[in-house]
Specification:
The protein has 289 residues and is of the alpha/beta class. It has two domains: 3-137, Rossmann fold (3-Layer(aba) Sandwich), CATH 3.40.50; 140-281, Cytidine Deaminase, domain 2, CATH 3.40.140.80. Helix content is 37%, strand content 18%. It is built from eleven helices and 13 strands. The longest helix is centred in the middle third of the chain and has 18 residues, at 153-170.
């Protein structure tokens, strides 16, 4: 649906790292909606300074809500990766101290538990947490082939295997991606993220006999079952394709409408230049049997 139909009023964007916070801001501004970006120091890119913005440090929970209220933001998007901070090294403001029991609860449990708790906490304050794909649907990967090259029959078999791996491991709150080559599972994404996983694959392949017949293998990314997609939707960008090429893969397949595409033109152009395919697939996969 068009971004302007979500609701009226300015949208707050809590920005972690990467280009997506600015992409969401551009989309909303183009639709005629005001935005205010709240950048987390040490995480958000300096590029957010091109938009109405406020910087906050980890622990400045009070400042976060004062900023949202002061700029009339009742809806907000939380977008961009962050590293889980060491609470022992954070200086909390008064607003955070009042919420200390909640903050301490975030030290327990996996990512899904933490992110779901954050959403419930924010919405308990009277705000509405929106998914980036809800307010800027054009940033989602569409279904179908996006590149000149498509997957081969062998690639399609690897994609099917990888989809099942991601689906199975996702139920255990383990990652959003997997790499499969010629039927062999080379890696699954854990806490290190997609790029680091692909770097592991590249090292693994260097240590093995040189592959024959050109590029082989696929990266598949999709949300975990029950994942809080409003604040943790998978994303790919040009670097994803570069790392996939370095790992000797033939291409990337992702869940259509469930994965964000950072810098669409650059990502597709990079894939084409490197001779990789990029496709959006139905998700979830067909049930076994």
């Amino acid at each position: 649906m068009p971004a302007e139909n979500i609701s009226q009023g300015p949208l707050g964007i809590i920005a972690g790292n990467g280009a997506l916070p600015c992409a969401v801001a551009e989309s909303l501004i183009a639709s005629g909606r005001d935005v205010h970006i709240i950048g987390i120091r040490g995480e958000a890119l300096p590029a957010i300074q091109s938009y109405p913005h406020t910087w906050i440090k980890w622990g400045e929970v009070g400042k976060l809500f004062v900023t949202l209220q002061g700029h009339g933001c009742r809806d907000l998007v939380i977008i961009g990766g962050v590293k889980r901070p060491d609470l022992a090294n954070i200086k909390f403001d008064f607003g955070a101290i009042k919420s200390l029991p909640f903050i301490l609860s975030l030290t327990i449990g996996g990512d899904d538990h933490v992110l779901s708790s954050v959403v419930r906490y924010i919405e308990g304050k009277g705000y509405r947490v929106r998914g980036a794909g809800d307010v800027a649907p054009e940033l989602l990967v569409p279904k179908g082939r996006l590149t000149g090259k498509g997957p081969s029959k062998d690639d399609e078999a690897d994609i099917e295997t990888a989809l099942r791996v991601v689906d199975a491991l996702g139920r255990l709150d383990v990652g959003q991606g997997a790499v499969v080559a010629k039927g062999h599972v080379l890696a699954v994404e854990a806490a290190e993220g997609t790029d680091a996983m692909l770097e592991r694959c590249a090292e693994l392949r260097k240590r093995r006999v040189r592959r024959k017949g050109g590029l082989s293998g696929v990266l598949v990314k999709a949300p975990k079952p029950g994942q809080e997609e409003r604040v943790d939707m998978p994303a790919i960008g040009p670097n994803t394709l570069r790392h996939a090429a370095s790992a000797g893969l033939a291409g990337v397949a992702v869940a259509a409408g469930r994965v964000l595409l950072a810098d669409r033109e650059a990502t597709i152009s990079t894939a084409n230049e490197l001779g990789l395919f990029l496709v959006g697939l139905d998700w979830p996969p067909l049930a076994d049997g």
